[in-house]
Specification:
The complex is a heterodimer. In chain A, 43% of the residues lie in helices and 19% in strands. Chain A has 15 helices and 11 strands. In chain A, helix 1 packs across helix 7, helix 9 crosses helix 15 and helix 11 crosses helix 15. Classes of the chains: A alpha+beta, B alpha+beta.
Chain lengths: 422, 413
C-alpha cells in the first residue's frame, strides 16, 4: 500500500430511476406514487394551482395556505395540531409562485387517520379570525427580524431590481400588506383556487393499498371548479449596475451579483450548470478557492442558477467584512472574465463532471428524493428521465462550450452588483 | 431497528458498521473525541479552528477536496463542545478513496502557516456571520458564562472571543493534533451499501498501522451545584422584539434525567398543541415564538426556555408567564394522553431518523462516544419507560429558582 497513490476510482453509476404509477380520481385529481415497501414511513404532497401568481393582493396566497392548519368546522387549530402530534406526524405548508403544497410525513401504520385529517383541512377550513390574527402577527414579526439581516435585504434588492415590484417573482410587499389581510379575502382565494381541478397528489415511501384507498375515499369528494387562467405579468427590470443598500450597524456586508439565468428547458441548461459549478457551484469552485481559501475574506461564497416557470436568474452570494466588499466584487469579475477568455483546463472540467454526476446520484437517492425530484420536474411537464439527458449532456460538454456560454450568459454589463451593509 | 457490527482495532480505533442496501452510497463518518470543552480556557475556539485545518492537506495528499469530488463524493464536518465529527458520503464503489483520505489526515496533517493564516480569517468571518451579523446571534456568548462558572461549557465552540482565534500559532496546532487526532481517540462509523466484513477489511488496511497517541486527557472541571438565582440584562440590541432565555442545569446525556427532561420539554413545547404554544402564543398573546428544549450535551447540560416577545409586552410579564407555566407543570397533573402523545412523537422521530444512511452513521458514532452504541436501538424504550411520577419528581428538582439563570435581551429604546 502506497499512500502517495490514490485508490483506483470506478465510474459513477447512473441513477436507478424508480418507476412511478399514476391514478386519476373521478373528480380529476391526479395521484402519482412511488412505492418502497422497505420503509415504515410515507410522505404525501397535495399540490394546488394556488401560488402567488393568482393572489389578489400580496401575502394572500401564503397566508391562505398556512390558515388551512388553523381550524375546520369540526376541529379547532389546537385539536388539529394535537391530532397530528399524537400520531407522530408532521405537516408542512409551502407556497410558491405558481403551485402551493401541503405535505404530510407519517408512519404508514397511522395513514388512515392522518390522511383523513389532511382531507378534512383541505375541504373544510373556516379561516377563524382569531387564529388569523395570531398567524399574521407572528409572520409580521418574523419579517421584521429578516429585515435586520443584510443577506435578506441584498436578496430582496436583487429581486426588485430584476423582476420589478409588480411581478409576483419579486415577492414584493409592504408592512401595511399584513394589516390588509382578513378572513374574507383569504376565504375567497381558498374558494377560488383549492379545487380538484389542477390538484396533484404525490405519494412516496411505504405506499400500501390502504393508503391508496384512503386517499381515493377522502379526496374523491373534493369539488372540481373551473379555474381562471393564469394572469399575465410583465417584468420591469431596472438598469444593471451598482446598487447599495445602507445598513449602518452591520458588521459584515452582503454581496449579491446577479442577472438573467438559463431556463431548465433551454438547450444550454446543463452546460451552463457546469459553467456555474466551475465558477461558484461547489466547495472546490474558483470563487471558493479565491475568496475563501486563498484570501480568507468570507466563510462562504457561492453562485447558483434558479429556473422558474416564466423566467430564470443567476446569482453570486456572499457575506464579507465591510471593508472587503469592493475587493470581493473585483475578484468575482476577474473570475468571470477569465472564464470568458481562457478555456477551462480539461482536468478541472473532468473534476466538475464527476462531482456533478455524484450530485445527480445524490439527488435521486432513495424513494423520497426521487419523488421530490419528480414533483419538481412535473412543473415543466418533465419526469425524472430528464436526468438521463442531463447525464448525456455532461458527457458532451467541452472547454470551448463553456467559454462560449461564459460569453453568452455572463456578460458583466448585464449584471446587478448589490451590496448591503454600512 | 438498526443492525450493526462493532470492532476495536489493535491501535484503539473503534469501527461500527451498518449495511444499508437501499442506497448506492456509503457514509464514512469519523468522530474524534475532542471538542471545545477540551480546550485551554485561554485558547478557546481551537477545536473548531482545527476542524477547518483538517481540509488543508495531509502528509501524502495536498488537496483533500479534490479527491472527494473526483470520486463523486461530498464531505463536511462540525464541531460541538464535546466532539468533532467529519463525514464523507461517496458512491459505495469508491469507499477506498474516503478511507485513504481520512486515514492519511489521521496519520499526519500537513502543518502550514499559510493555511493557518487563511483559515483564521475564514473562522473570524464565520464568527461575525453567525454571532454578530445575525439578529439575536450573540445571546449564547453571554448565556453560557452565566449558567456555567467552572465547566468548559462556559464558552461556545466558536470561542470566547475573536482574539483567541487570532492568537493561535502553528505550535498550538501541532500539539492539538498530537494529543487528540489518533486512532485511540476516534470512532469510525460506516453506513451504506457495503458488507460489514468488507468494511472491516478495508478499515484495517488503511487505519491499522496508524500509531495510537496514548494521550491522557485532562480531567474536566465539574460544575458545582448552582445555589443562587442568576440574571443578566443585555440592552440596546438592534432587534425588533425583546427576547428572554431561562436556563436550568440538568443531567448528562447518558443519565435517566436526560430522557425525562427531554419528555418534559416536549410536553411543554413540541408542536402546536404543546402547552407553551397554546397558552403563551395563542391564548395569552405574549410571545411570537416560544420554545423549551434540552441542549443534549454529553456532560450535564441545560434545560432552556427561549421566547421572543410580542410588541408592547412587558418582559416582566412574559417572564412571570413562563414561571406560571412551570408552576402549573409541577403542581397540576399531566394526562396520560399528553404523555402518550410525546412518546408517540419520539417513536416517529426515531423511525424518521432511520431513513438516511448518513444520519445513521453519525448517530452510531455519537452513541459509541456515549459509551453504549446499542442506545441507537434502545433509546425508544428509555423514552417509553418514563412515568408520570418520574416527570413530576424531575420537574420539581429541575425548576428550582436557585438552579436558574435568566437573560433578558432588550431591543433598542
Amino acid at each position: 500500500m502506497d499512500r502517495n497513490i490514490a485508490p483506483q476510482l470506478t465510474d459513477i453509476c447512473s441513477p436507478n430511476l424508480l418507476a412511478y404509477q399514476t391514478i386519476k380520481l373521478s373528480n380529476g385529481i391526479e395521484i402519482i406514487y412511488l412505492n418502497d415497501p422497505d420503509q415504515e414511513v410515507f410522505k404525501m404532497d397535495v399540490v394546488f394551482d394556488s401560488g402567488s401568481y393568482y393572489q389578489p393582493a400580496p401575502l394572500v396566497a401564503s397566508t391562505m395556505l398556512s390558515m388551512i392548519n388553523e381550524g375546520t368546522s369540526e376541529f379547532t387549530s389546537t385539536e388539529i395540531a394535537e391530532y397530528f402530534d399524537f400520531h407522530g406526524a408532521y405537516v408542512g405548508f409551502s407556497s410558491g409562485f405558481h403551485k402551493s403544497e401541503i405535505s404530510l410525513i407519517s408512519l404508514t401504520r397511522y395513514a388512515p387517520e392522518t390522511i383523513k385529517m389532511i382531507s378534512e383541512m383541505i375541504t373544510g377550513s373556516i379561516f377563524p379570525k382569531k387564529e388569523m390574527e395570531i398567524l399574521v402577527r407572528n409572520k409580521r414579526q418574523q419579517h421584521l427580524i429578516n429585515e435586520e439581516k443584510t443577506s435578506y435585504l441584498a436578496r430582496k434588492e436583487f429581486s426588485l431590481l430584476f423582476f420589478g415590484k409588480n411581478h409576483p417573482y419579486s415577492n414584493y410587499f409592504e408592512l401595511s400588506d399584513f394589516d390588509n389581510l382578513n378572513p374574507t379575502i383569504l376565504k375567497n382565494f381558498y374558494n377560488a383556487r383549492i379545487s380538484a381541478n389542477g390538484c396533484k397528489i404525490i405519494l412516496c415511501g411505504n405506499v400500501n393499498d390502504i393508503i391508496l384507498k384512503t386517499v381515493e375515499k377522502y379526496f374523491s369528494n373534493l369539488e372540481s371548479k373551473p379555474l381562471t387562467e393564469e394572469p399575465i405579468y410583465y417584468f420591469e427590470s431596472s438598469s444593471p449596475g451598482t446598487y447599495k443598500v445602507l445598513k449602518d450597524d452591520a458588521v459584515q456586508t452582503s454581496v449579491r451579483i446577479g442577472k438573467k439565468g438559463v431556463h431548465i428547458l433551454d438547450e444550454d441548461y446543463t452546460h451552463f450548470q457546469i459553467l456555474n459549478m466551475v465558477l461558484g457551484g461547489y466547495f472546490g469552485s474558483r470563487l471558493m478557492s479565491n475568496i475563501r481559501e486563498e484570501k480568507g475574506l468570507t466563510y462562504g461564497i457561492s453562485s447558483f442558477n434558479v429556473s422558474m416557470l416564466h423566467s430564470s436568474y443567476w446569482n453570486v452570494a456572499t457575506d464579507v467584512n465591510s471593508d472587503k466588499a469592493e475587493l470581493t466584487i473585483e475578484e468575482c469579475t476577474k473570475e468571470i472574465r477569465k472564464l470568458q477568455n481562457e478555456p477551462v483546463p480539461e482536468e478541472e472540467l473532468n473534476l466538475v463532471k464527476s462531482y456533478f454526476n455524484g450530485e445527480l446520484l445524490r439527488e435521486l437517492d432513495g424513494v423520497f428524493s426521487q419523488a421530490d425530484a419528480l414533483k419538481h420536474k412535473m412543473n415543466y411537464n418533465l419526469d425524472n428521465s430528464f436526468y438521463l439527458k442531463v447525464i448525456e449532456e455532461i458527457k458532451k460538454c467541452n472547454p470551448q462550450n463553456l467559454r462560449d456560454l461564459a460569453n453568452k450568459y455572463l456578460n458583466i454589463d448585464e449584471m446587478y452588483f448589490i451590496t448591503c451593509g454600512k | 431497528m438498526i443492525n450493526y457490527t462493532r470492532h476495536v482495532l489493535d491501535n484503539g480505533l473503534t469501527l461500527i458498521c451498518n449495511t444499508d442496501k437501499g442506497t448506492p452510497f456509503v457514509s464514512v463518518n469519523i468522530l474524534y473525541k475532542v471538542g471545545a470543552k477540551n480546550e485551554n480556557p485561554e485558547k478557546t475556539g481551537f477545536a473548531h479552528l482545527f476542524e477547518h485545518l483538517m481540509f488543508g492537506g495531509s502528509k501524502h495528499i495536498p488537496d483533500f477536496d479534490y479527491h472527494v469530488q473526483k470520486a463523486g463524493g461530498e464531505n463536511n464536518a462540525f464541531t460541538t463542545n464535546d466532539y468533532t465529527n467529519y463525514y464523507i458520503t461517496i458512491p459505495a464503489n469508491n469507499i477506498e478513496t474516503a478511507l485513504w483520505l481520512e486515514s492519511d489526515r489521521m496519520l499526519e496533517l500537513d502543518f502550514s502557516q499559510t493555511s493557518l493564516d487563511v483559515q483564521k480569517n475564514v473562522v473570524i468571518e464565520e464568527f461575525k456571520q453567525r454571532y454578530y451579523n445575525n439578529p439575536y446571534g450573540d445571546i449564547w456568548l453571554r448565556l453560557r458564562p452565566l449558567a456555567y462558572k467552572v465547566h468548559p461549557y462556559l464558552w461556545p465552540t466558536i470561542g470566547k472571543k475573536i482574539e483567541h482565534i487570532e492568537n493561535a500559532t502553528l505550535e498550538d496546532v501541532k500539539d492539538f493534533f498530537n494529543c487528540f487526532y489518533a486512532p485511540d481517540n476516534a470512532i469510525i462509523s460506516i453506513s451504506g451499501n457495503i458488507k460489514d466484513s468488507d468494511a472491516l477489511e478495508l478499515v484495517k488496511k488503511w487505519f491499522g498501522d496508524i500509531p495510537p497517541a496514548n494521550h491522557k486527557k485532562k480531567e474536566l472541571l465539574q460544575e458545582p451545584k448552582q445555589t443562587e438565582f442568576r440574571k443578566i440584562v443585555m440592552e440596546n440590541n438592534k432587534v425588533p422584539a425583546d427576547a428572554i432565555y431561562i436556563a436550568y442545569h440538568m443531567g448528562s446525556r447518558d443519565s435517566d434525567n436526560f430522557y425525562i427532561s427531554d419528555i418534559i420539554s416536549d410536553i411543554l413545547s413540541n408542536g402546536q398543541s404543546s402547552r407553551l404554544y397554546v397558552n403563551l402564543i395563542k391564548n395569552s398573546k405574549l410571545f411570537s415564538e416560544i420554545d423549551a428544549y434540552v441542549t443534549g450535551d454529553v456532560d450535564p447540560g441545560l434545560f432552556v426556555f427561549s421566547g421572543k416577545l410580542l410588541e408592547g409586552v412587558d418582559i416582566k410579564d412574559a417572564e412571570n408567564a413562563i414561571r406560571a407555566e412551570i408552576d402549573k407543570f409541577i403542581h397540576n397533573s399531566i394526562s396520560e394522553r399528553e404523555l402518550q402523545k410525546v412518546i408517540n412523537k419520539t417513536d416517529a422521530r426515531i423511525a424518521y431518523s432511520e431513513i438516511n444512511y448518513q444520519g445513521k452513521a453519525t448517530n452510531l458514532a455519537f452513541f459509541e462516544l456515549l459509551g453504549n452504541v446499542d442506545l441507537i436501538n434502545s433509546e425508544a424504550e428509555k423514552y417509553r419507560n418514563v412515568s408520570l411520577v418520574d416527570i413530576k419528581n424531575t420537574a420539581e428538582e429541575l425548576f428550582r429558582i436557585e438552579n436558574c439563570s435568566t437573560l433578558w435581551y432588550l431591543k433598542e429604546k
